[in-house]
């Protein structure tokens, strides 16, 4: 809860600064947004340790191999980074670049999930 209050306050402050700067100095507004985004990501990374510990515990309890869990985590990470990159591009007025980032992120997430698909096919093959 405390981290979200910090993140929310930082996001609102950065949005207000960007709003004020957009009219007079658009490049500085974008720089402020990028800086605040980096700080927000750094704050959120603290929670990533808790998520990693929980996923590891679930993996052990369910008896899942890392070959099943790792592709899912990679795809989620790619999705989050793709979304952030696309939003920054849109804020900069580069809709085409945002679409390219989203397309590339989709392709990379699918590539990251290929080992999971291979594991499913191997399991089905064993059952047959």
Task: List the main descriptive attributes of the protein structure presented here.
128 residues; mainly alpha; 4 helices
Indicate the topology.
Blueprint: H1 2-24, H2 26-62, H3 66-91, H4 95-127
Helix pairs in contact: 1-2, 2-3, 3-4
Would you mind describing this structure in some detail?
The protein is mainly α and 128 residues long. The longest helix is centred in the middle third of the chain and has 37 residues, at 26-62. Helix 1 (2-24) runs antiparallel to helix 2 (26-62) and helix 2 (26-62) runs antiparallel to helix 3. The protein is elongated. The chain folds into 2 domains: 1-48; 64-128. It has helices at residues 2-24, 26-62, 66-91, 95-127. Helix content is 93%, strand content 0%.
Number of strands: 0
What is the ordering of alpha helices and beta strands?
HHHH
What is the strand content?
under 5%
- The domain tally reads 2
What oligomerization state is this entry in?
A: single chain
Shape annotation: elongated
Helix content: over 70%
Mean pLDDT, to the nearest integer, reads 88
List the uncertain runs.
none
Note the total helix count: 4
Q: What does the main sheet amount to?
A: none
């Amino acid at each position: 809860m405390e981290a979200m209050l910090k993140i929310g306050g930082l996001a609102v402050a950065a949005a207000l600064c960007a709003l004020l700067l957009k009219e007079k100095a658009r490049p500085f507004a974008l720089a402020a947004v990028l800086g605040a985004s980096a700080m927000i990501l750094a704050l959120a990374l603290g929670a990533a340790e808790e998520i990693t510990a929980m996923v590891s515990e679930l993996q052990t309890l369910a008896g899942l191999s890392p070959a099943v869990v790792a592709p899912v985590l990679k795809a989620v990470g790619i999705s989050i980074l793709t979304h952030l990159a696309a939003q920054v591009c849109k804020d900069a007025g580069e809709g085409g670049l945002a679409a390219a980032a989203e397309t590339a992120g989709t392709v990379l997430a699918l590539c990251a999930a290929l080992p999971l698909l291979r594991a499913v096919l191997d399991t089905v093959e064993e059952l047959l």
